[in-house]
What we know:
The structure is a single chain. With 524 residues, the protein is an alpha/beta fold. 37% of the residues lie in helices and 21% in strands. It contains 16 helices and 24 strands. The protein has helices at residues 3-11, 54-71, 76-92, 94-105, 109-123, 130-137, 173-184, 198-214, 229-237, 250-262, 285-297, 317-329, 349-364, 406-409, 425-433, 448-455; strands spanning 19-21, 23-24, 28-29, 34-38, 45-50, 141-144, 150-158, 161-165, 188-192, 222-225, 243-247, 266-270, 275-279, 307-313, 368-371, 394-397, 416-422, 437-438, 440-444, 464-467, 479-480, 483-484, 491-492, 501-509. α7 links the parallel β8 and β9. The relative contact order is 0.13.
Amino acid sequence: LSTRASTILQALDIPTSNEIPGVYDGTWKGEGELFESLCPTTGEVLARVRSASPQELQLALEKSKEAYKFIRSVPAPRRGELVRQIREALAAKRDELGALVSLEMGKIRTEGVGEVQEFIDIVRYTHADYAVGLSRIMNGRVVASERPGHSILEVPNPLGVVAVLSAFNFPVAVYGWNLALSLAAGNATLWKPAPSTPLCSIAVIKIIASVLEKNGIPGAVAGLVTGGKDIGQAVVQSQDVDMVSFTGSEAVGRDVGKVVQSRFGKVLLELGGNNASIVMPDADLSLAVPAVFFGAVGTAGQRCTSTRRLYLHRSIAPTFLSKLQSLYSSLQPGDPLESATLLGPLHNRAAVGIYSNAVDRLRRAGAEILIGGSQYGSEDLKDTLTGGNFVRPTIAVPSKVDVTDAIWREETFAPILTVGVFDELEEAIGWNNGVPQGLSSSLWTKDLRNVGKWIGPAGSDTGIVNVNVGTSGAEIGAAFGGNKSTGWGRESGGDAWKQYVRWSACTINFSDEAPLAQGVNFST
Ligand code: UN1
């Protein structure tokens, strides 16, 4: 193992031995398939992780159920105190965890640290502690009854076992959003991370497990099963799992949704984004250009919220594109762990293939490639990086906008920005809404009338609707998620916690009469 890698692993107590156990249900184990964690920057094998065997998964599910029975009776503010301690333990390791995210996922260091900060934030929101505070205000309601001497309560109770199936691109934060709310709400949470980022999940679970242990709470309150498709499918099918929170592709999400629905479980889906930025003639380009640059190129285009479509008003299109191109030309691929790097690698080899196919498809459709359009060759890369998955961020201008065409409709998880030119805002809003996905969108304007249109009923139909703010980089305070094929689920802030509980409507009769609702008379 290189010193670059071993220093980071050691700082997080991850063994640098041959095989690492990738299952935690109160104790660490792993007898299943062996998974390699590969460094996207160098191609180095970082670790071999033993995933869950089918028996270990069953046991982990049973332990999660038992752990739920324990944690549901711990008063919510006490659970909030656990969440607070988890926040402190995470904050103490923030930079080390951030470095591990960069090492294993490939995003640049400030974004790796930023993602851990996002986990800390969901626990600790601005000045108050978000999930900690939530643990005291996950309130039900008292509803007026139409019957004398009766009251109706709407009561939120813990749900059960929440399984979190997370993607490689946010290997820490997305779990954090779910865990914080799920634990505050009184559930046991079982995490099945992406098979290619096991080390991030092992490091996070170690930190959480030490807090739970100190407080005498069963470890399976925050369990971990690493593994591949088989393990994921078994988790999704299991009757022991009351809610599945899945982040990933539309194709897999569609199956997950069906399977969970067929057994009447709850599902929270966070699927594809195919996010657009719209730039009006009155926009402040000194803000809009760098924001689009970050949205399209940041995380090498591997956020659900990355900017993939750019709609420019005809009057500013040439100026905008030349400014954007000059930012693109300043980019140098580099080691995401080095502080000057803005462009890291794609996460794996498969993503490079997907990038190349998408660029070919654009070329075949007659699009002009303004910049980029190919992988970096070894001559462009430092010797240590030639094993990495580096591609050139690309700007493509098809001859026209046609949102029924795959080049506009499909999400490509890579730094490719597709550009169209419009004359009227309504036309651009139509394009924004004309694709299957509905995660994020952003409008650049100073005109209040445009803002009104954009956020109103005939405006953007995405879950995140920004103004003079890019499509990516949402804060945790607002509910995160999208509409349409993005899956309608909401995580993180806002009212997202309401999905992690089961609601009961309890009608209570305090009187000496037993009247029926709607005045129904059933007397003999
Ligand atoms: C994701 O890509 O799945 O809004 C999550 C953002 C981040 C989260 C992205 N806060 O870009």
